[in-house]
Amino acid sequence: MSSVRHPSDGADRGDRPGKPPGRFRRMLDRLSSSQEELHSAELQQDAEAAGCTKIGDCGDRQIVKVTGTLRTVTLRPRAGVPALEAELFDGTAALDVVWLGRRSILGIEPGRRLIASGRISMSHGRRVLFNPKYELRPLGQE
Question: Where in the sequence does UniProt note compositional bias of the Basic and acidic residues kind (predicted)?
Fold first, then answer.
């Protein structure tokens, strides 16, 4: 085996295992990333800082604490009972949050960040959290 380095192996960019990328590399990454990618990365960092489980890592029947941004909030009856449904996104995956018997909840609106905890269930291939315990994140952290 040869120990010759080629320009395409990352040696010329300063990429070294265990060493964080430099300021210039971070700036280039930011400029070349889409707004959605940047928002997803920010949400993932927020989840890690809050000590929450990534939604993408949540399994069926697991008790979890997750955080993210509400993408949609809709009123949909379930079995004849009003149900407020919201989609929570944390940068890794989406989760449906359902409050049975509620038509609206003050502060639950698209774009709002929150922390929710409860038992995950799977419904039609999607993760669902029914009647979770939740905390609204302060508006200054939006």
Answer: 1-18
